[in-house]
């Protein structure tokens, strides 16, 4: 049965026009975001304009928020790359999308056509991957669809998504269709953090049935790694985190064991992990780091 991705909303009357709306703008590195009125241009060829329904904060937003202007950082900028939106209008040459459909913007492009996108072994699109990560504008022509509502100043895009705005414009290769029955506050986590974690266990490490997995750091990505390992049939999933409360939470995602590095005395975490594993099993041990900082 075809998944229902269509919203029960009438066609928009804004197609082809500039939309004025609110966005959280980052004017300078490390400064508080300011919510101001902006202008969002209509989508050009291969582009889709989305009304953002829900967006969440990923640690990469914080990393870029702090970053001094340089090769991958420019201000003013609209951050945000985990979100769920509904298609407001589509540009020329866009096929397979129409207004009212529910969409998950994903910062990693998938053109479905290049050698890397056709391969199960890569997720870095050969045609657009690098441009999508380092650019400040739209994927194909590099220009911005955002203007400051009062001065007309160009506002830069972020990771091809810029979801800290009521409306944004995204290239069609950065969109995945999702059903309308998934709660938006959960679906938006699939846009980056949860996919990263589940994918690390499922695709990158290819965790095997019956194996042991150690996860360093139990934030959103680490917990998603546990979920991916559980789905792949790992029999022992060890979480390592300084916050003891993460064990109870982690059990819901498949954790079977927990190590708090502050309560193991002079032992190293690797020793504790080693002593808890049966050497007769002879199965691979996977270790996955999800921490940004290790103290
Ligand atoms: Zn992210
Ligand atoms: Zn590609």
UniProtKB/TrEMBL annotation:
Span of domain Alcohol dehydrogenase-like N-terminal: 47-178
A Pfam match: ADH_zinc_N
Molecular function in Gene Ontology: S-(hydroxymethyl)glutathione dehydrogenase [NAD(P)+] activity; zinc ion binding
SUPFAM superfamilies, alphabetized: GroES-like, NAD(P)-binding Rossmann-fold domains
InterPro entries (alphabetical): ADH-like_C, ADH-like_N, ADH_Zn_CS, GroES-like_sf, NAD(P)-bd_dom_sf
Assigned keywords, A-Z: Metal-binding, NAD, Oxidoreductase, Zinc
Cofactor requirement: Zn(2+)
Domain of life: Eukaryota
Entry's Gene Ontology cellular component terms: cytosol
Chain ranges of the Alcohol dehydrogenase-like C-terminal domain: 220-271
Keyword Disulfide bond: no
Gene Ontology annotations of biological process type: formaldehyde catabolic process
Family: Belongs to the zinc-containing alcohol dehydrogenase family. Class-IV subfamily.
Subunit structure: Homodimer.
The protein, known as: Alcohol dehydrogenase
Naturally occurring in which organism (per UniProt): Linum tenue
């Amino acid at each position: 049965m075809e998944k229902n991705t269509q919203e029960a909303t009438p066609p928009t009357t804004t197609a082809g026009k500039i939309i004025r709306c609110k966005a959280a703008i980052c004017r300078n590195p490390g400064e508080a975001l300011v919510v101001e009125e902006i202008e969002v241009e209509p989508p050009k060829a291969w582009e889709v304009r989305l009304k953002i329904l829900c967006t969440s904060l990923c640690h990469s937003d914080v990393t870029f928020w702090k970053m001094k202007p340089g090769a991958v950082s420019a201000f003013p900028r609209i951050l945000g790359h985990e979100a769920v939106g509904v298609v407001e209008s589509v540009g020329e040459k866009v096929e397979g999308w129409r207004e009212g459909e529910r969409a998950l913007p994903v910062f990693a492009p998938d053109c479905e056509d290049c050698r890397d996108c056709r391969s199960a072994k890569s997720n870095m699109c050969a045609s657009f991957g690098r441009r999508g990560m380092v650019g400040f504008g739209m994927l194909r022509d590099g220009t911005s669809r955002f203007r400051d509502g009062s001065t007309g100043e160009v506002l830069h895009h972020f990771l091809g998504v810029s979801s800290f705005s009521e409306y944004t414009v995204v290239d069609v290769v950065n969109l995945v269709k999702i059903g309308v029955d998934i709660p938006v506050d959960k679906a938006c986590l699939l846009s980056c953090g949860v996919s990263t974690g589940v994918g690390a266990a499922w695709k990158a490490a290819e965790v095997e049935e019956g194996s042991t997995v150690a996860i360093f750091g139990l934030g959103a990505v680490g917990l998603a790694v546990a979920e991916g390992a559980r789905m792949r049939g790992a029999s022992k999933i060890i979480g390592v985190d300084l916050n003891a409360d993460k064990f109870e939470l982690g059990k819901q995602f498949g954790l079977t064991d927990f190590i708090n590095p502050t309560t193991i005395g002079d032992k190293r975490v690797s020793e504790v992990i080693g002593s808890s594993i049966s050497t007769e099993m002879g199965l691979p041990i996977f270790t996955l780091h999800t921490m940004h900082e290790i103290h």
